[in-house]
Amino acid sequence: MLTESSYSQTNKLTFIYCENCGQFKNLYLDTDAGQLDCISFVDGVGNFDTVKSKSTIIEIENIKLNILDIDALIEAKKALNRKKDLQAIVELEAIIAI
């Protein structure tokens, strides 16, 4: 299933055509391995190129993945200003302090 970030959970798509991909800001793909977030912008960090420059490459099961570095992750969580991220910010900042 594909879900566009501005859609409600009831507006799920079962497929998408490549020519329509540009209309989505963020896509959330439900896969057998779990949800895959395809995002074009991260609040507090920036657009794709900026996010990529602030990422670290990790490898899981022979697949290389870019993940936000810890400083960028903290900035993203601060920018979102969600209650559920407050403790994570404290914990991430404690990790940096070690």
Structure write-up:
The protein is α+β, with helices and mostly antiparallel strands. It has one domain. The chain is built from three helices and eight strands; from the N terminus they run E-E-E-E-E-E-H-E-E-H-H. The strands form three sheets. The protein has a four-stranded antiparallel sheet, with no helix packed on it. The protein has a two-stranded antiparallel sheet with strand order 5-6. Strand 7 and strand 8 form a beta hairpin. Helix 2 runs antiparallel to helix 3. Mean pLDDT is 84; it is low at 1-8.
Structural domains: how many: 1
Strand content: 25-35%
Q: How widely separated are the two ends?
A: 41 Å
Q: Tell me the Rg in angstroms.
A: 15 Å
Number of separate helices? 3
Helical percentage: 25-40%
- CA-based shape: globular
Strand order of the largest sheet: 2-1-3-4
- Tell me the number of strands: 8
**Poorly predicted ranges (pLDDT <50, ≥5 residues)?**
1-8
Major beta-sheet overview: 4 strands, antiparallel
The whole-number mean of residue pLDDT values reads 84
The H-and-E topology, N to C, reads as EEEEEEHEEHH
Helix/sheet category: alpha+beta
